[in-house]
Amino acid sequence: MTTDLPPALIALARAAASEADPRAVFRAAEVANAALLGHRLFTILFVVPGGAEVERIHSSDPVAYPLTGRKHMGPTPWGDVVLKQGRTWLGNGMDDIRWAFYDHELIARLGCAACINIPVREGGEVVGTLNILDAADSYTDRDVATAEVIGGFLPGALRRAATLAAATTRD
After folding, report:
1. Which among 29, 93, 119, 125 is most buried, taking Cβ atoms within 10 Å?
2. Residue extents of the structural domains in the chain
């Protein structure tokens, strides 16, 4: 039996295995997601050791969602689901977006009302999140499975990015 894998997914697998620069892996993940699911906004965050802060390290829209350093993650229902329990979250519609995100008005201005948040795990520990947003009702449970495959290629790059960020803050 032969399985034809999407070229963008193959490129992501190769980048994850061979790229020392995590940004190349994140770009490959964005390209794979665009080819397989589509998005209006695609971001990646890493969880700072200790879990109280996250840092955006990739953004398809650096004007609206820049790479601006760390932010404190207070206790939220979304954080409990994705960051603490390590469960994927699918939101469809502005009620879901308002429930999950304090910046829901900006998300709406970008034309987004559907979201998949993938907790990226390594050894069972959440090391980051993959965040994919598009128009209302853009994503299904099947799309979540595809996004989880994309997220599965990210732990090594997230660890390298966290190490680089820690070295930068020490300098």
Report:
1. 29
2. 7-170
Q: What is the 3-state secondary structure (H, E, C) of the chain?
A: CCCCCCHHHHHHHHHHHHCCCHHHHHHHHHHHHHHHCCCCEEEEEEECCCCCEEEEEEECCCCCCCCCCEEECCCCHHHHHHHHCCCCEEEECHHHHHHHCCCHHHHHHCCCCEEEEEEEEECCEEEEEEEEEECCCCCCHHHHHHHHHHHCCCHHHHHHHHHHHHHHHHC
Model pLDDT for residues 69-118, shown as the tens digit of each residue: 777 777 889 999 999 999 999 999 999 999 999 899 999 999 999 999 99
Asked whether 82 and 119 are in contact (CB, 8 A), the reply is yes
Query: What is the domain class of 7-170 according to CATH?
Result: alpha beta
Give the residues across from 115 on adjacent strands.
91, 133
- What CA–CA distances, in Å, run from 65 to 45, 152, 163? 11, 23, 22
Q: Is the dihedral of CA 114, 158, 61, 64 positive or negative?
A: positive
Rounded to two decimals, the pTM is 0.92
> What backbone torsions phi and psi does residue 97 show, to the nearest 5 degrees?
-65, -45
Whole-number Å distance between alpha carbons of 103 and 120? 22
